[in-house]
Amino acid sequence: MSIFCKNYRQGIFYPKNPSKCLNVNGEISARPPEYRSSWEYKLMEWCDQRERVLKWGSEIHKIEYYSEVDGKIHRYFIDFYYEINTIHNGIKKYAIEVKPNCQIARLDEHGNVIYPDPPKKKTQKSLMQWQERCNVIRVNNCKWQAARKWCQENGYIFEVLSEEDVGSWASQRNVNK
Fold first, then answer.
1. What is d(CA 65, CA 146) in angstroms, rounded to the nearest whole number?
2. CA-to-CA distance for 15 and 24, rounded, in angstroms?
3. pLDDT tens for each residue of 75-91
4. Exposed/middle/buried for 87, CB within 10 Å: 0-12, 13-18, 19+?
5. What is the pLDDT of residue 170?
6. What is the mean pLDDT of residues 7-28?
7. Strand (E) positions, 67-166?
8. Average pLDDT over all residues of the chain
9. CA 90, CA 88: separation in Å to the nearest integer?
10. Strands 34-35 and 11-12, sheet pairing
11. Which positions ≥6 away from 20 have C-beta within 8 Å?
12. pTM assigned to the model
């Protein structure tokens, strides 16, 4: 499986409820939300169609992070933001990142990244692909550490969802319309 799949469904999302989409209503950004995968599209649909989702946006919060891979400061835009009326606990704010499972860092009990095993066949191509995968995981982990800190400081809940998580995530948060 390629880390950088070019076959993802991509496009502009046109919300049915534009007044609560921060990308459309001009509150934060005047550019329409873009999805870079069918998983992101599903999340946009979910946010748009749920009555208790008060507002949402795509790539509206920018966070700076330090990359261990190149030793530089970069900008990172969290995939999604939404606010929801939880009825029992008031309003909660979420920051959500959607990534393929193969790009998500797994951590051991000490918080260290668990990297995939090196390839069995040590060809130059397979070693380069393995190193690229490890670097993507490292960079994502750096981004998400910065995002978790930013979310904690700003009262948000940060979650990373894989393609496998998006469907179950939406059903677990099956907020009535």
1. 6
2. 8
3. 999 999 999 998 887 89
4. exposed
5. 59
6. 80
7. 73-77, 80-85, 91-98, 106-107, 113-114, 156-161
8. 86
9. 6
10. antiparallel
11. 48, 53, 54, 55, 56
12. 0.82
Q: Residue type at 174?
A: N
**Both structure tokens of 176:** 């009535």
Q: Which residues, in sequence order, are CB contacts of 125 under 8 Å at separation 6+? A: none
The closest of 98, 85, 68, 89 to 160, measured between CA atoms, is 98
**Which residues fall within 8 angstroms of residue 131, CB to CB, at 6 or more apart?**
none
Amino acid found at 53: V
- Provide mean pLDDT across the span 149-164: 92
Cα–Cα distance, 47 to 17 (Å, whole number) = 10
Convert the pLDDT of each residue in 101-149 to its tens digit.
888 888 889 888 899 999 999 899 999 999 999 999 999 999 999 999 9
State the distance between the two ends of the chain, measured CA to CA, in whole angstroms: 37
R_g over Cα of the chain: 17
Give DSSP secondary structure letters for 118-129: PPSS--HHHHHH
CB–CB of 116/134 below 8 Å? Answer: yes
